[in-house]
Amino acid sequence: MTSIHRISAIALAALALALGAAPAQATDKKVDVLGIPADMPRIGKTRCVVPNVCFKKDAPTIASYDPGVIGSPKFRPGEVTLRDGTVLKGTVALLNTAADWEFVKQVALVIPDGESAAIFLGQEDALLIRQEQKDGTDIYDRYGNGYLRRLVSGRMRLSYNPAAGTSRPLSDFVPAGVLNNLSGALGREAVIAALRDGKTVGESLGAGKSLGSAVSDALGSIEITEKEYLLYDEQSGTLTAITKASHGPAMERMFAACPAADPKQVKALARNYGKIAEAVTYYNSVCR
Fold it and tell me: How far apart are CA 156 and CA 112, in angstroms?
């Protein structure tokens, strides 16, 4: 370990231990951020790797995030599931590395219960992110090089397609069976201990990133020419892109093996592209 790295690790350890035995609370105050990869590019000539996630001028190995800046995402109660299945509960803020669709995020910051500093989670560190809102819970799935917010949860999962209108191949979501069977072997305390030793979350989890999902495409900032959806069947593990043109047949196929569904309602929903979320919600409520 180099002297610079050693100083950084000691500083991070001191920050992580500085406060807090109480559960993490939503905060608008500036917090220190642990685990930012050393090679992560800065924004222009700034000390920031993500808007308002910036290395300190007087301590260039230590970063902070200020959710109190107007327009900055706030910390809200939630949890993240890491690549090995380890769950970190506390408060979560979701950020973009650059301008992108509001339903796509590339970075998460989580302040685990009992800690005062935030942990930096990059594009391949987590599999599932939950964040409580006033009107319910937002769920984000790892997808490509980011985290994609669900519109509908259940056996049939619905999300916007951030690569709509392009010829790019579909990336796969992490199969539900894989997610449910992860052991979480590393564990919360081991992750935090690794961060106190100057490591990133990715380094603490090891080099392996493949979980059986064929994540084949970097999303980036893509112009959406027509609203398009992703329909994921958690039972079969199949993923379908649905456009306005393919919507009707796709809905009919979805309901074909569901005798409990009302034929008149299915027909009405299959005709209306604007009611696709309602159709998927109805399927999840009456079909097994």
Answer: 31
Q: What is the pLDDT of residues 120-160, one digit of tens each?
A: 999 889 999 999 998 889 999 998 878 999 999 999 999 99
Token pair 């081991």: residue: 190
Q: What is the pLDDT of residues 229-272, one digit of tens each?
A: 999 999 888 889 899 999 999 999 999 999 999 999 999 999 99
H or E element that contains 215: none
Separation CA 167–CA 169 (nearest Å): 6
Q: How far apart are CA 26 and CA 29, in angstroms?
A: 9
- Residue 170 carries which DSSP code? P
Q: Pull the structure tokens for residue 175.
A: 């199969």
Residue 78 phi/psi, 5-degree rounding, is 175, -165
